[in-house]
Amino acid sequence: MPDNILETRNLVKEFKGFVAVNDVSLSVERGHIHALIGPNGAGKTTFFNLLTKFLSPTRGSIHFNGIDITAERPAQIARRGVIRSFQISAVFPHLTALENVRIGLQRNSGTSFQFWRSDKILRAYDKRAMELLESVDLGAFAHEETVNLPYGRKRALEIATTLAMEPELMLLDEPTQGMGHEDVDKVTRLIKQVSAGRTILMVEHNMKVISSIADRITVLARGAVLAEGPYAEVSRDPAVMEAYMGTTDGELQGAH
Fold it and tell me: pLDDT of 115-132, one tens digit each?
């Protein structure tokens, strides 16, 4: 039996009669990179919002490490080690890369937002912050203001600040969106690199990225699970091709 870190059971979210997530039962195996894909409006972002409790489900349940976390609040979910990238993204454009990661470390240690603390205390986080920056190839940018970083570097910084929270399960929401090919390749390699020893659930449109790093794929369409399996299997599913491309000919590849 697979060791599932996350399970949703018959998860439903309705908005005034509109069903955004429709009876979704999904299992994420520990140590895997699991991709959640689907056309625009398929319910992917709503599903992520349910996992992190920014929304409460209409029906169904969410289980993390075998514990029912359906009724827990966002802060409780984060403390369990379920961290979504934008929750701790580099939202301070006029702080340096190092300072942004240091804030992530402060949050994880329970000293969140205590900006009045002495420089000496805050500097205690610098060594670990530098290690995290080095791990995402940002060591040379440690003292650069975030506003000056290229877009791809900002996404790498977002991953570093996510890692500062020591996630057991990382939720990455379209990590390569808006990037050129070179940055896409860099961030893809980075995701694969940081997946060692942790589990990643990612929403991603770029099929090249998914085909190269995802262990398993779940396809959503109109809020429901349309298909699930490895890329080679899912990419040839006629129902998936119909949902994405409006055709059942050929194979799904390279689509955004």
Answer: 555 566 677 889 999 999
